[in-house]
Amino acid sequence: MTLNQVYNVDNINEVIEILGNFGKDAKIIAGGTDIVIALKNEKISPKVLIDITKIEDLKKIEDDGEYITLGAGVTFTNIVENHLFRGNLWGLYKACRMVGSPQIRNKGTIGGNIANGSAAADSIPPLIALGSIVRLVSIEGVREISLEGYYTDPIKENELITEIKFIKPKENQVLTFAKLGLRKALAISRLTSASLVEFDNEGFIKSIRVASGALGKYPMREYEVENYLIGKKIREETVEGAVERLQNSMDERLKGRSTLPYKRVAISGILKETLESAMTIGREVAAW
To answer: What is the pTM of this model?
Structure first.
């Protein structure tokens, strides 16, 4: 199939109209870090490309006090350079800072990271831990779905991801992230882990969400780990217990996979870093 036309659009309504007309024969291009490679390798062959890089409404970063909203066209560099993502949102800052090279961070977008559907996408576990909601728009209307649920009900051919939003963490909540890649630069993650931890006044875990990447078909919550950690302090024996429960889940999820022995060992350090950094960052945020 030959590419017939590239549309350079400047508003969301125009994108929706084109997607409605062309359906599966149209593809969105924003940063282009994934789709250009797919086109070059002939993994996709759309008739139409829709360039959304000029749509300012997709580049917003908004904090209304209750929710933080990221336009789908926000780049990883936009997040890294925004002071909103320091302090108790450090985990999202760190994940975006560790994406590929500076060139990829400058071009790659949050919406593209979601739409691409990779199990190893760096920004996704922190966003899942934050309980993020994805907003999708089509000629049929608006659909909102949790990012956790998105991977079992992903983007349709006529839909555009317009924004991702999450409730702003409270002062006693801390978002963390850890990654193991093949190499420090340009690494595609072998394993990622993120957690949103809420501590009570005595340092016990009041609530927690733990999300992983590359430990299954798609990024996901680790509920057995969460249930184990509620009401505990982060100590060495607690972390070891959390690792054991995650490994048990992996044994079932990755049964028969050649990567399982490696991942069982590697996840120990990744989860430990995720949990222990929550204590460190929590103390630093409290000091501020």
So the answer is: 0.94
